Amino acid sequence: MATQTLVEVQTTNYLNEKTGIMSWLFTTDHKRIGLLYIFSITFFFFFGGLFAVLMRIHLLTPRGLIFDHETYNKLFTMHGIIMVWFFLIPSIPNTLGNFVLPMMIGAKDLAFPKLNLLSWYIFMLGGLVTLYAITRGGVDTGWTFYTPFSTLYSTTFVIAAALGILIAGFSSILTGLNFIATVHRMRAPGLTWFRLPIFIWSMYATSVILVLATPVLAITLAMVAVERVFRVGIFDPALGGDPLLFQHMFWFYSHPAVYIMILPAMAVVSEIIPAFSRKPLFGYKAVAFSSVAIAVVGFLVWGHHMFVAGISVYSAMVFSLLSYAVAVPSAIKVFNWTTTLYKGSIDMKAPLLYAIGFIALFTIGGMTGLMLAAIGLDVHVTDTYFVIAHFHYIMVGGSVMAFLGGIHYWWPKISGRMYPEFLAQLCAITIFIGFNLTFFPQFVLGYLGMPRRYAAYPPEFQVLNVLSTAGASILGVGYIVPLIYLIWSWRYGEKASSNPWRATGLEWKTSSPPPTHNFERTPIVTWDAYDYEAQKEELQLG
Amino acid sequence: MIPLALILQGSVTHEYDALFWSIVALCTVVAIAIASFLIFCAWHYRRREPDEIPPQIRMNIPLEATWIAVPTVIFACMFVYGSKLFFDIERPPDNTEDVYVIAKQWMWKLQHVGGQREINTLHVPVGRSIRMNMISADVIHSFYVPAFRIKQDVLPGRYTTIWFRAQTPGTYHLFCSEYCGTEHSQMIGWVYAMDPKDYQLWLEQGGAEGSLASTGEKYFHQFGCSNCHHFDGHGPGPSLAGLFGHAVQTEEGRVVLADESYIRDKILNPSAKVPQGFKSTVMPTFKGQLNEDEITALIAYIKAIGPRQGSEMPSGPGEQLGDYGGVMPDLSQPAAPPTPTPNPGGVH
Q1: What is the pTM of this model?
Q2: A174: nearest Cα among A121, A119, A98
Q3: Interface mutation target, options B41, B60, B171, chain A, most CBs of A under 10 Å
């Protein structure tokens, strides 16, 4: 019981070593910065979620229940902007990634702790500028900022919103750089590349995308601002520009951005499944290389957003083929996760429920992605609710499920307390049901032809819209309850041992919550990732 | 109440739905297999002893190879069928009837070759292939008829095209599906697919002041095009007789197809893609002087000028109007001469 004793002796940890607001605002501890991010993105999640709820209520009736069309257009724009750039992109990397990545590789902190803090400040500055745009009257361009509407026709706060996103982008770049440097330079002795947990592989792949793709977004948004302010013809044909140039540049960032959102989710699931089945992740190398393949090929598929935009038939075919190519590594991952459970010792705790929910919803999202990648099929369903449903299955069904799974999985480490298990299981199931009820009807709506971004719709679509709104109300409850019980458990939860799941990662070899410098002694790694056999004695198994 | 788009209504609807539902069926089988396996494992391998350690299975190369190879083959098939369907959706057959579409915030302006104008409605005969030649006057819009399974973005500054053939008489939704501003959701209309006889009747009651080409002819003189572009070829500019649908050899040594986009480009930006032999001739630009309606009419006129020198105006719409037979014409040789199309119902 060596580890248990350690917890009792250990009294100072990263949470209580220093106190006071300044100790948080000027911290360079990756764990505290991770917590700062958790607070920030939770705020943005419920803010963006509020817009979603208002939209769903509005769509209860064909003519729209509450808002005029302009307000509705602003709602879906701001929902998209906040959820994509201020929740999904930073969600797992900047919270869980920040918190556990250094511990997983046996490091004291990230390679550049001050840069890490700067990245949070930049993120918050970007968030504040975007909130300014929203409170001053909002934006109505859609989160995609398509030109020439965004540059010459919209009369809303386009530049302020674009500036907020541009600023937040620098935060992404800094985080990406920090992770790359950390993984290269700070691994514990003996922790070779092929001994790294898949979480690290996926986070590394994510960081590469963050660093390479985000600058293109910055350039694109700057060009929008230049055309809007100085009337320089870049995108508007009336000024001599090309509107499709914008779409190429925007999706050159925004498609890889989809992988920025989903690779970290895959990272979390790849940790949870071995931990709750007590088995190494099946096909470790295949899963690791899949992450890299997704990051690389993901840069070459942006044109699949533009099949009906007016690109040539032959370029559409190339993008279709490459889109199928990027689907292969995703399929490989699904099969490997599933097979890991085979002959395991499965403990269906809340994190595993979330992970299995992730597999189910990601699979549906991925399969509908196969349909959208078939160019001929894309024509009818693109820009309809079919696409809305498809990417919410990936982004919400995938990324948010994994994020919640990860928060629960590492909660004992983060807070030093256990969350209420039964309530957590109940919420995981509620979210799964609410999610499907919200978004499955949208596949049908899209197939029947309801376009996206419609403030009012033909009456025959009402039944499915009402169903979707009903589902959203269940989903909303499923999201609010964990917020309440996690806050509760921070104070009143049962004290957590250093390794309540008896998992194999290095982060479980230090106390809960960990000391400021993570480890008393730098660990020396002599085993492969998820190696229960090698750690049998230590984990008291068998 | 308009019936939902579940029965065969457009030329590709059947083909589309066949592929769509085949993939749905395949995916459903795979999804159920995965779900069953997950549920089986979750129950059958549930933890029985708190300290138990299961067999540590790490890798199975043949298994990995199988689930890399099988999806790859299936995806390749999806790619092939999806692309084939796309070609059917994109490539218009010969003998289409043209409709000119101008999209603007927030309405659809449609014009038939006979000169009939419509706003937010489109009347078409069933069984006839209709080719939409579309341009936007402001932002990007998208022409979407769910029942026909077709959609194409409508861009400012250049033409895009889409075609369909209605199969069953009826009324079908027309939506704008690319977000275009405040009243995006109101940029909707109806496609009336009519029995050819009814369509004939509709055309005759359409109140057109003259065919689109004859309006174009008026502009051709009014804007001074006819001063330089003589049909006998002796004017300062090239003769436009029989130009449409043919390959043009440019000064830069490129070969371009004289389609709607080319003619529009030449009107607005004459100094680019100059035909061989006309390098020294300077044509003024009409940028900012012509609106999209006027350009459309001019194109319809140039399209209608037959190959014969100094030919008179065709008497009815479509009489001399040909169309090149695909979106990817072979530019290595001059395109075939325009095929005369049967008169779908001349307006006199």
Answers
A1: 0.88
A2: A119
A3: B41
The CATH H-level (homologous superfamily) assignment of domain B1-41+91-208 is Cupredoxins -  blue copper proteins (2.60.40.420)
| Whole-complex ipTM | 0.91
Q: Which residue has the tokens 């089945």?
A: A277
Task: Work out the number of other CB atoms within 10 angstroms of the CB of residue A312.
Answer: 12
Report the chain B residue with the minimal C-alpha distance to residue A331.
B71
For A295-321, write each residue's pLDDT tens digit: 999 999 999 999 999 999 999 999 999
Task: Give me A403's structure tokens.
Answer: 């994020």
The verdict on whether omega for the bond into residue A513 sits within 30 degrees of 0, i.e. cis, is yes
Pairwise CB contact (< 8 Å): B19 & A236: no
Residue with tokens 């509908």: A368
Q: Tell me, which fold does domain B210-348 have in CATH?
A: Cytochrome Bc1 Complex; Chain D, domain 2 (1.10.760)
Q: What is the least distance, in Å, from the CA of B242 to any CA of chain A?
A: 27
Look at A146 and B179 and tell me if their CB atoms are within 8 Å: yes
Domains defined for chain A, CATH in brackets: 31-509 (1.20.210.10)
Residues A203 and A161: beta-carbon distance below 8 Å: no
Largest separation between any pair of C-alpha atoms in chain B: 99
Contact state of A375 with B85 under an 8 Å Cβ cutoff: yes
Q: Please name the residue that has the structure tokens 């990027």.
A: A326
Summarised one tens digit per residue, pLDDT across range B226-269 is: 888 887 777 788 888 878 888 888 888 888 888 888 888 888 88
| Alpha-carbon gap: A165 to the closest alpha carbon of chain B (Å) | 21
Interface test with B, best of A71, A150, A379 (most B CBs within 10 A): A379
